[in-house]
Specification:
Elements (H helix, E strand, L loop, with lengths): L3 H4 L13 E2 L2 H8 L9 E5 L5 H9 L2 E6 L5 H8 L5 E5 L7 H8 L5 E6 L5 H10 L6 E7 H7 L10 H9 E9 L4 E2 L6 E8 L10 H13 L5 H9 L3 H10 L13 H18 L1
Parallel strand pairs: 2-3, 2-5, 3-4, 5-6
Antiparallel strand pairs: 1-8, 6-9, 7-9
The protein binds S-adenosylmethionine.
Length: 282
């Protein structure tokens, strides 16, 4: 079996699984040749599908572990790449596998990079899962919908900044590498895409006294973007609005500031001050 099985409609792309296959090999090459990754890097590929990216990864990197949910592709991929001794294929859901275990079993001692032309319906859960679980990975190179890329890579404090912008910045340096037009895929999606690189930081960008609380505050602030951040945080978390406004004032910030204008360092300070006040009042 080969990729033409899909293009000839013998395997019908499953929309629900976000199956838009890369047909432009130069895009795959550009992704794989991302700067600074050594050939002995161990790779995890999310959703190999027809294997366009997989082939390039196998030719460059020392080991490639592919995780594909759709069992229809498993025989085709096994067959096509059986000649590569560095190829490992797992038929599973990326959101359900234990990557700690997979890395320990197959990629121990290597620098690890995650690649994927991501299924767009679960782009954010996949990226957040990779970042929040603090897997021993060095970098993620991911194709995603252009709008999602712009959200992840937005400038802090800019209009496009969102909860995922700040979460991604907490764990990584985020850069859009290049854009890819819809015509590079089969079937052709309605949207354009971008390839984004996340370089995981060895030390997280800020040091909140309570990480969970900081993210609760960020999520609360962005959950009601039309309100002021103080209003949104107070209504979602149930803290007195005046307490939050007092903290904003202490930090020299406008009490009416909106969620997107606050930077990660501001959220860290707000969360630390709230944490301290709670300790005192307990
Ligand atoms: N890598 C191929 C390419 O570039 O042509 C396919 C990319 S396609 C956008 C997304 C792939 O992810 C599909 O093969 C799909 O079956 C797979 N996929 C979707 N959901 C998944 C999940 N939860 N876990 C693993 N793979 C998934």
């Amino acid at each position: 079996m080969s990729e033409s099985f899909v293009y000839n409609n013998k395997i019908k792309p499953n929309k629900k699984l976000g199956q838009n296959f890369l047909i432009d090999k130069t895009v795959a090459e550009r992704m794989v040749d991302t700067e600074g990754l050594k050939e002995d890097t161990g790779v995890i590929e999310i959703g190999p599908g027809t294997g366009k990216l997989t082939e390039k990864l196998l030719k460059k990197y020392s080991k490639v572990v592919c995780i594909e949910i759709d069992k229809r592709f498993i025989p085709m991929l096994s067959d096509r790449f059986s000649k590569f001794s560095n190829f490992i294929l797992i038929n599973s859901d990326i959101l359900k596998v234990d990557l700690h275990e997979i890395i320990e079993k197959h990629l121990a001692g290597k620098n690890v990079a995650v690649f994927g032309n991501l299924p767009y319906y679960i782009t954010s859960p996949i990226i957040m899962n990779l970042l929040e679980n603090e897997y021993p990975i060095d970098c993620i190179v991911a194709m995603m919908q252009k709008e999602a890329a712009e959200r992840f890579a937005a400038e802090e404090g800019s209009r496009n900044s969102g909860a995922v912008t700040l979460a991604a910045r907490y764990y990584s340096d985020v850069n859009i590498l290049f854009e890819v037009g819809a015509e590079s895929f089969y079937p052709k999606p309605k949207v354009d895409s971008s390839v984004v690189r996340f370089d995981i930081l060895k030390t997280k960008r800020v040091a909140p006294s309570n990480e969970k609380k900081m993210f609760e505050i960020i999520k609360a602030a962005f959950s009601q973007r039309r309100k002021t951040s103080a209003n949104a945080i107070s209504s979602v978390i149930g803290i007195d609005k005046s307490r939050i406004e007092e903290i904003l004032k202490t930090l020299g910030l406008d009490t009416k500031i909106r969620a997107e204008r606050l930077r990660l360092a501001d959220y860290c300070k707000i969360s630390n001050l709230l944490d301290k006040k709670e300790e005192i009042s307990n």
